[in-house]
Amino acid sequence: MLNATWLNTFTTLCETGHFTRSADVLGMTQPGVSQHLRKLETQVGKPLIVQDGKSLTPTPAAEALFKVGLARRQQERKLRELMQRDDPGVGEVRIGCSGSFAMWLYPHLLERLRTAPDLALHLTAAPRGDVTRGLVHGELDLGILATRPQQPQLEARMIMREELCLVVPKSLQTQEVGLADLNTLGFVAHPDGYEYADELLGRNFAKEYQGSDHLRIRTSVNQIGQILTPVAEGIGFAILPRSGVDAFARRGDVSILDLPIKHHHDLWLTFKRSRSKFARIASMISLIEKEVSALNQMPK
């Protein structure tokens, strides 16, 4: 690989055509310029300058190398401009959150992409442990977590309280439903569903509920967008955060049971403090907070 300092000295020498002027431009001594030229000639294995008195004539190899030097300067200039600009609409943003929240969030993020053609967005639906590790290791820029992280390098802002919902077929929306009725209907299991069931059913059916491992499984699915599909078809019940229910394409075919004891998750927008200084990250934080604020004001 060509030495960048020697190449810059050589490029300046070709531009000025004079050792003394090159030394003045570079803030060097004339012998220093000559030394850089000799070292570069040794590196490329070719003579670069033919000197006839005070006249300097570049060799064919020098002409090719001069083009390389000019191109590298242009690349460095563009890189400096890009780094100094820190445009909120340029670069990559990587976000991790639960599948249900991703279903609700993604359409709002697409609106941002429409107005920022140089912005790349990567949204990952993953368990909270994976999201936390991704933030700590720099694999994610932003995360939305259901518990406040304890890692000191992470900053977290509570953006909303999200209700955990018991979802049944629309035909049951006016009926009084007990745990036995739910078991007859059958549970639509998914990776987070067992934990959700213990949290919600354990509070509302404390005397009867024996744990999620005692629920009758009617079907299981690990695709977040499909969890409520069997419920919409009258098959089974499911438990999801409200964002996942509201984002379901057939929302009108399912119903949320009005339970006596509500249960909520606090959602935390989480990021490394150092990353939040980047314009594109700060802009995305503001966008998520704005959309969540609008969601919080909507009637439930």
Structural write-up:
- The protein has 300 residues and is α/β, with parallel strands linked by helices.
- It has three domains: 4-85, Orthogonal Bundle (Arc Repressor Mutant, subunit A); 91-161 and 265-296, D-Maltodextrin-Binding Protein, domain 2 (3-Layer(aba) Sandwich), CATH 3.40.190.10; 162-263, 3-Layer(aba) Sandwich (D-Maltodextrin-Binding Protein, domain 2).
- The protein contains eleven helices and eleven strands.
- Strands 3, 4, 5, 6, 9, 10 and 11 form a seven-stranded mixed β-sheet that branches. A two-stranded antiparallel sheet has the order 1-2.
- α5 links the parallel β3 and β4 (119-125).
- α1 (4-16) packs across α3, α1 (4-16) crosses α4 (60-85) and α2 crosses α3.
Task: Note the main attributes of this structure.
single chain; 300 residues; alpha/beta; Arc Repressor Mutant, subunit A; D-Maltodextrin-Binding Protein, domain 2; two-stranded antiparallel sheet; rod-shaped; Transcriptional regulator; WH_DNA-bd_sf; transcription regulation; WH-like_DNA-bd_sf; DNA-binding
Low-confidence stretches: none
| Class derived from helix and strand content | alpha/beta
**Gross geometry:** rod-shaped
**Range of helix content:** 40-55%
CATH architecture of the largest domain: 3-Layer(aba) Sandwich
Beta-strand content: 15-25%
Q: Specify the number of helices.
A: 11
The tally of domains stands at 3
Overall pLDDT metric = 90
How is the biggest beta sheet arranged? 7 strands, mixed
- What order do the SSEs take from the amino end to the carboxyl end, as H and E? HHHEEHEHEHEEHEHEHEHEEH
Radius of gyration: 31 Å
CATH topology of the largest domain: D-Maltodextrin-Binding Protein, domain 2
Total beta-strand segments: 11
Distance between the termini: 63 Å
CATH class designation of the largest domain: Alpha Beta
Write out the CATH superfamily name of the largest domain.
Answer: Periplasmic binding protein-like II
GO molecular function, one term: DNA-binding transcription factor activity
InterPro entries: LysR_HTH_N, LysR_subst-bd, WH-like_DNA-bd_sf, WH_DNA-bd_sf
Protein name: Transcriptional regulator
Domain HTH lysR-type: 2-59
